[in-house]
Every structure is written in C-alpha cells, then in structure tokens.
Amino acid sequence: MSEDGRWVIAVACLIYSACLALAVTTYGHIHVAATGLLLASAGACGPLQTGGISSRLPTIVASDQRSQRKAQGWDVATYGIGGTIGPSMVAGLAAWATPKAAALSLALASSLAAIAIFRLPRSAPAHGGNPSSVPGAWQTIAMMLGYGPLRRTLYMTMLVAFSMAALPIAAVHMAPLLGAKAASAAVLTAAYGLGNLAGSLVLMQRRLKGEPDPLVTSIATVVIGGLTFITLSQSLALATVAYVAAGAINAAFFAATLAARSEYAPPRARGQTFLWVAAMKITASSAGTAAAGFLTAHGSRFPLYSSICITILCVLAPILDRRLSPAM
Exposure winner among 54, 76, 242, 293, fewest CB in 10 A? Predict the structure, then answer.
C-alpha cells in the first residue's frame, strides 16, 4: 500500500495513457478482442482518475463545512469544464487532423495529469501508520451497504447516472421530431454540458446547504422535473433550454453526492468510498447509454420516459429505506 496516494493516481493515469495509445496505434493490426482488452484496461483506471482525485479534496482545504462545500463546487466545475471543453477540443482536432490524432491527444492529456497530480499537497496516510486498519474492497462495500446514508448515496448516484445517460441518445432521436436536422443533437448535447458548467460555477459561489443525505434526495426530485421538461419540449429552442436546465441540476446533484461521500465516509475508508462510488457511477452511466440505445426502438422519447420512471424510483427508494432502517 502506497504511503503517498498521489503515486497511485499517477500510475493509473499512466496506465490509462499507455493502454489508450496502444489501442489506437495498433487498431486494425491486432485482433479486435485485444483492442477491446486494452480499452477495458484504460477504462478500469477511470475511478482512480475521477474518484481518486476527488477523494483528496477533504484533506487539502479547511475542515469546516463551508470550505469543504466550496471546494466540492470547484471539483464539480472541473468535471463541467472537462466534459464541455474536452469533447469540443477532441472533435475539433479530429476534424482538423485525424481521429487517431484526437485519441492520442487524450492519452497525452492523461500523461500530463500524472505529472500535475504531484502539484497537490501530500497528505498523511489515512491508516495513520497502520495499513492493516484500511478496509479492503469487500469490507468497504459491506460498510457502505450497512450504513444508511452511504448506501443511499451509492444507489441514488447509480440510478441518476443511469437515467441521465439517456440524454445524448434521446437528443439524436428527438431532433427530427422537433423539426430540426439530426445534427442538431449536437446543440442539445452541448447545451447540457454548458448547463452543467454553469451550475458548477454557481456552486462555487453559492455552496449547497443542509444535511447531504436528504439533500441528495431533494435534488433527485428536481432531476425528475428536468427530465420531464425535456420530454414535453415541442421545439428545438425549448429543448435546448431544458437540456441546459438538466445539466445545471445534475451539477447540483453531483455536488450533493460529493458532500455525502466526504461527510459520511470514515477517514480510513474515504478513498475507497470515493473510488467505489465513482466506479459504480461509470458502470451505471455506461449501462444507461446502452439501455437508451435499445429503448429507442420503441419510440424516440421512450428512453426519457424510462429515465423519469427510474428517477422516481430513485426518490422513493430512500424514503422507504429510512422507514425500514430509521437508525441507519
């Protein structure tokens, strides 16, 4: 176990970089299964590149709630910037040069991140000199499932990620229904990213207030409204506004889940908690994208209807959870 968590994150960034670069440069020259394995290996580094970095936040800012919540707003903003500007830059590079060059730029960015991570201050190991006190994978999962606030944070994060993953797919199929070209889906997707970024910037100035557990549930309720707004939109302009709103709401939801992870996870298991929630979120988002693609066969708005139903379940589940286990 590393005494300096920055090395673990840096190595993950380098592995991601190497696997992605190999997959891109060898594509078409090796068996497709080998390419898939390389991409899967790169994807396995994702939780460390996201949750791993986010887990360091509580130790590099003041411990009071105001400072922590403001830092979480900054953290959400980095996701908003990366999710908005990053794809735009890659798309531009792919058009100006080649898709291969664009993919290799991602590998290069990950390598640069491995260097940049050491600009963060080193923090004392969570195990306090006793590595055996840090829970393993199964112990961490058991701890999360056994403690109500973390359990609810985990499954609500997954359900909302699954639901929101339908938005890019829905945009492609909704555009023609709104009297626009299919290419207009890019406008809707960009609007969602800009909304996410705008919401993040607001959170940097006006931190979320309140206990994280009920806060996550409350914002999930607003997510239902955002999805319904998109579903009922009858013009491209209205749908664009709805996508902006959905992006902003998702930024607030993400910030609330970060607060829950930070405040409810025990210090010795905080890093593992961030990683597992990040891993489950990525998995749920991927599954949501696949499910949305499948459900479009039943109607252009069917993925959105399903997302609304799942998010309603996401809001009802913690209410029942608290009643069944009031002490947890």
Answer: 293
What pTM does this model have? Answer: 0.80
> What proportions of the chain, in percent to the nearest 5, are helix, strand and coil?
85, 0, 15
Cα 95 to Cα 8, 25, 182, 236, 311, distances in angstroms: 35, 18, 19, 26, 37
CB 286 within 8 A of CB 165: yes
Tokens of 289: 């994208």
Burial class (CB in 10 A: 0-12, 13-18, 19+), 119: exposed
Assign domain 5-120+137-324 one CATH number from 3.90.79.10, 1.20.1250.20, 3.40.50.1820, 3.40.50.720: 1.20.1250.20
Instruction: Please identify which residue in the block is written with the tokens 């005494």.
Output: 3
For 186-211, how does the pLDDT look when each residue is reduced to its tens digit (9 = 90+)? 788 888 888 988 888 888 778 788 88
Helices (H), 206-266: 212-232, 236-264
Beta strands in 75-198 (DSSP E): none
196/247 Cα distance (integer angstroms): 4
Note whether 22 and 3 are within 8 A (CB).
no
